[in-house]
Amino acid sequence: METLRVSGTSRPNAIAGAIAALLRTQGEVEIQSIGPTAVNQAVKALAIARGYLTGDQLDLYTQPEFVKLDVQAEERTAVRFLVKAIPAPKSPS
């Protein structure tokens, strides 16, 4: 599974495109963010990615969790989003 690392300066549209591409090809992706600004950018990217997937009749499902990461010999707490592609719900006719 691919891991995308999102920072506070990451562009949500670019991350959303990467999320959508990985969900189309691999069906899942992991996103890691450290800090409130980075988590905000990741959540915006997830919302944008949902729109990118509608033409493929796909949606996404995510489970956020806290994880400990070693960054430059220092333990940091990150938010990890495990994201999976699911079929888009049928719209009522």
Topology:
Blueprint (H helix, E strand, L loop, with lengths): L2 E4 L5 H15 L1 E6 L2 H18 L4 E14 L2 E14 L6
3D architecture notes:
- The chain has helices spanning 12-26, 36-53, and strands at residues 3-6, 28-33, 58-71, 74-87.
- It starts with a strand and ends in a 6-residue tail after the last strand.
- It has a four-stranded mixed beta sheet.
- 35% of the residues lie in helices and 41% in strands.
- The longest helix has 18 residues, at 36-53.
- The chain contains two helices and four strands; from the N terminus they run βαβαββ.
- It has 93 residues and is α+β, with helices and mostly antiparallel strands.
- Helix 1 (12-26) crosses helix 2.
- Helix 1 links the parallel strand 1 and strand 2.
